[in-house]
Amino acid sequence: MIKLVKEIIVVEGRDDVTAVKKAVDAELITTGGFGFPKGVMKRIKEAQKRRGVIIFTDPDFAGEKIRKKIAAQIPGCKHAFLPREEAIKDGDIGIENASRESIIAALNKVRTENVQKREEFTKKDLVRNGLVGFDDASKKRDEIGKILGIGYGNAKQFLSRLNNYGVTREEFEESLKNIDK
Fold first, then answer.
1. Nearest-10 crossing angle of helices 169-180, 137-148
2. In angstroms, rounded to a whole number, what is the distance separating the alpha carbons of residues 98 and 102?
3. Which H helix or E strand runs over 178?
4. Around 42, how many Cα atoms within 13 Å sit in the side-chain half-sphere?
5. pLDDT at position 36, please?
6. In terms of C-beta density within 10 A (0-12 exposed, 13-18 middle, 19 or more buried), how is residue 139 classed?
7. Alpha carbons 95 and 87: distance in angstroms, whole number
8. What is the pLDDT of residue 2?
9. Beta carbons within 10 angstroms of residue 18's beta carbon
């Protein structure tokens, strides 16, 4: 059964649209990459006002830049993150390479970005839990990012996502227990 998504999903290109439409029933807007054709940002702003927006960009550098560009201009967006290894095919990284199940799982873990700054988590939390300054810290952040649906990030990005995507202390502690198993 295909899930109906109320919000409008923003993706990078036509192939992403095809992949997402195979997984869910949704209206989509494409950014056309980082360049954003004329009028695209305005369409995304209108979509956010009408129905809400889910930013669902590729798990790569360009996708992250696009996500930040949209989020900086349009507050209160929701974010879906696809684990990098679920988006790779023949060395190419993108939403279009993900399975239907992976796309649905990412959309089921959507997080809303907080408009007000929040500091529930600090660098001490990362250090105390081996998420920075240890050989396997990057791997642990990746695993926790998958569990929480906030994607992978370097230490600074990860801390920002913990605070800005409404992750609770309980969710964080539970994710730590799950990766230690």
1. 120
2. 6
3. helix 169-180
4. 3
5. 87
6. middle
7. 6
8. 66
9. 13
Give tens-digit pLDDT for 3-12.
889 999 999 9
Owner of token pair 């970005």:
113
**What are the pLDDT digits (tens) for 103-149?**
999 999 999 988 777 889 999 999 999 999 999 999 999 999 999 99
Tokens of 38: 């004329």
Q: How far apart (Å, rounded) are the C-alpha atoms in residues 76 and 55?
A: 11
- Which domains occur in the chain, in start order? 1-113 (3.40.1360.10), 117-181 (no CATH)
Q: Averaged over 16-28, what is the pLDDT?
A: 96
Separation between Cα atoms, residue 173 and residue 175, nearest integer Å = 5
For residues 42, 158, 27, 18, the Cα torsion angle rounded to the nearest 10 degrees is 120
Q: Are 155 and 162 in contact (CB under 8 A)?
A: no
The C-alpha angle 36, 83, 164, rounded to 5 degrees, equals 70
pTM above 0.70, yes or no: yes
CB 118 within 8 A of CB 160: no
The type of residue at 19 is A
Report how far residue 44's alpha carbon sits from residue 48's, in angstroms, rounded to the nearest whole number: 6
Residue with tokens 């980082």: 34
